[in-house]
C-alpha cells in the first residue's frame, strides 16, 4: 500500500497540521435578546442557557463576551404586546427602549460590532414581517417604507450592520438608498438572502413572543424544497448593495451555504438558529448526545460548508472552548 490516509491522522498535532478548517472567535456573531427596563434576566424556556436581558445585564454580557474574544452581537428587542400595532410604529421611535439601548451599548463599547434586525414582526400585532391587509395578504411595496424608516432609526444610534430579515422583494436596495441619502453610507447591510420558511425558528418566537397571529410566512420566506432559487435571491441582494449574504437556518441548509459560497464573492454568513441550538441542548440534557462535541462539530461543519461568519447562540460557550 503506497497510500495510507491514516498517516495524516496519527496524532493530534499531525491532525491539526492538515486540518482544512478551524473555528475562531472572530467567526462569530452572538444573538442577544433585549428586555425593556432594568435588572431583568429571564431564561428562555425552550433555550436553556439563553436569557432575555435588560440593558444593564446586556452591557455586562457584552463585556464578558468581549473578554472571550466575541466582538460582534446581533440584538433583538422583546416588545410587550401594549407597544405593538399594525404598522410597527415603535420600530422607528427614538424614545423606544430598543433604540435607546443600542445607543448606550455603542457608546460603552465603540469597538464592538453591533448588528440590528429589520423586520416588522416583533413590533407588529399581526406578528408578520410585513404589513398585513384585510384579506391576510402581506403588502410588499408598502412595507418597504416602514423597513427603510426602521433601518434609518437604527443607523442613527451608531450601530454597524443592518440585518434585514423580512424577505420582502427590493428591500436591500430600498434600505441602501435610504441610508445613503441620509449620510449613512458607512453602515453595512447583512441581508438574510436565503431565509427559509422553517420550523426551526420556534424557540426564537417564544423568546420574542413574535409568532404570527394568523397564517404562516410561506409567501415571503423560501420553500425548504428549493436550492437554486437561493441564487436568484443572492444575485438580487448583491446587485442591490448587500455587503454580506446570509443563509438561514444553517445545519439543514449546508448545501445552500456551499452553493452561495461557490457562486459569490461576498462574505457568506450562516444563522445557526434557535431550534438548532435547542435540539442539541435537549439531547445533551437527556444524556443522549455529548453537548460540547456536538456543538463544536456542528459549528465546524457550517464553516466547512463555506460560511465565513456564523451567527450562533453557542458563540459564547464555543469561545470558552476555543480559548
Ligand atoms: C424575524 C427573525 C426571525 C429570526 C431572526 N429574525 C424569526 C422569523 O422570521 O420568524 C429567527 C432566529 C432564530 O430562530 O434563531 N424576522
Automatic annotation (TrEMBL):
The active site is at 195 (schiff-base intermediate with substrate), 248 (schiff-base intermediate with substrate). SUPFAM superfamilies: Aldolase. GO terms for biological process: heme biosynthetic process. One of its GO terms (cellular component) is cytosol. SMART domains: ALAD (SM01004). GO terms for molecular function: porphobilinogen synthase activity; zinc ion binding. Keywords: Heme biosynthesis, Lyase, Magnesium, Metal-binding, Porphyrin biosynthesis. Pathway: Porphyrin-containing compound metabolism; protoporphyrin-IX biosynthesis; coproporphyrinogen-III from 5-aminolevulinate: step 1/4. It catalyses: 2 5-aminolevulinate = porphobilinogen + 2 H2O + H(+). Mg(2+) binds at residue 233. Transmembrane segments: none annotated. It comes from the Bacteria. Its EC number is 4.2.1.24. InterPro entries: ALAD, ALAD_AS, Aldolase_TIM. Homooctamer. Belongs to the ALAD family. This is Delta-aminolevulinic acid dehydratase. It comes from Marivirga atlantica. The gene is hemB.
Amino acid at each position: 500500500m503506497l497510500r495510507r490516509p491514516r498517516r495524516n491522522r496519527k496524532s493530534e498535532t499531525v491532525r491539526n497540521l492538515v486540518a482544512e478548517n478551524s473555528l475562531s472567535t472572530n467567526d462569530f456573531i452572538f444573538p442577544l435578546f433585549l428586555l425593556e427596563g432594568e435588572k431583568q434576566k429571564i431564561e428562555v424556556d425552550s433555550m436553556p442557557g439563553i436569557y432575555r436581558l435588560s440593558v444593564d445585564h446586556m452591557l455586562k454580557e457584552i463585556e464578558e463576551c468581549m473578554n472571550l474574544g466575541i466582538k460582534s452581537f446581533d440584538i433583538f428587542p422583546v416588545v410587550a404586546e401594549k407597544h405593538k400595532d399594525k404598522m410597527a410604529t415603535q420600530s422607528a421611535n427614538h424614545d423606544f427602549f430598543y433604540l435607546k439601548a443600542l445607543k448606550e451599548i455603542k457608546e460603552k463599547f465603540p469597538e464592538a460590532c453591533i448588528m440590528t434586525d429589520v423586520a416588522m414582526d416583533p413590533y407588529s400585532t399581526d406578528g408578520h414581517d410585513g404589513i398585513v391587509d384585510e384579506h391576510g395578504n402581506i403588502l410588499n411595496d408598502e412595507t418597504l417604507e416602514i423597513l427603510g424608516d426602521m433601518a434609518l432609526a437604527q443607523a442613527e444610534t451608531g450601530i454597524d450592520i443592518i440585518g434585514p430579515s423580512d424577505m420582502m422583494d427590493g428591500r436591500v436596495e430600498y434600505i441602501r438608498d435610504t441610508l445613503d441619502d441620509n449620510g449613512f453610507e458607512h453602515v453595512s447591510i447583512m441581508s438574510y438572502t436565503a431565509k427559509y420558511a422553517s420550523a426551526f425558528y420556534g424557540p426564537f418566537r417564544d423568546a420574542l413572543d413574535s409568532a404570527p397571529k394568523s397564517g404562516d410566512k410561506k409567501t415571503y420566506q423560501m420553500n425548504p424544497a428549493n436550492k437554486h432559487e437561493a441564487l436568484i435571491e443572492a444575485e438580487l441582494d448583491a446587485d442591490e448593495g448587500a455587503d454580506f449574504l446570509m443563509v438561514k437556518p444553517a445545519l439543514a441548509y449546508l448545501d445552500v451555504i456551499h452553493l452561495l459560497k461557490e457562486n459569490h464573492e461576498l462574505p457568506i454568513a450562516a444563522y445557526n438558529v434557535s431550534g438548532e441550538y435547542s435540539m442539541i441542548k435537549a439531547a445533551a440534557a437527556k444524556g443522549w448526545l455529548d453537548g460540547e462535541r456536538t456543538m463544536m462539530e456542528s459549528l465546524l461543519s457550517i464553516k466547512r460548508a463555506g460560511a465565513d461568519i456564523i451567527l450562533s447562540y453557542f458563540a459564547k460557550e464555543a469561545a470558552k472552548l476555543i480559548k
